[in-house]
Amino acid sequence: MLNTKFEAYKLRRELKRIGKEYEFKRPKQNEFKEPTKQEDFIVKLTGIYHEQNSYIKNTVNSATQQGGVVQVRTKKVPMILCLYDDAKFLKTGDIVRFNSKKYKVNGVVNIQEWNIISDISLEVVDDGIST
Predict the structure, then answer these.
(1) Mean pLDDT throughout 35-43?
(2) Burial class of residue 116, CB neighbours in 10 A (0-12, 13-18, 19+)
């Protein structure tokens, strides 16, 4: 049997020890439901930044090769580990800024479906302007 209070306590302890505060915002929409440059504050939460490895596989075929050449490379996926209750207000497309970069929320995962821990998947926004 899982002691959910103990699991939440362990995460809270680590968040107090090494966690960092992140402020999430959501782009405002105009009358046509298009995003504008203005942003609304959504939530401020404490989380632990980490990265996950993702693999990209490219197959290059040419007329002279039978099977093609397979190129595999790793790509880092930025993520923030936090309490489930803090992240339940987030939606895909919300914005967070830290380390002079702008990140967009790709999704929020409820770890083990315990409703205790969430992992926020992020994507770096490359708009050509440093924020």
Answers:
(1) 91
(2) buried
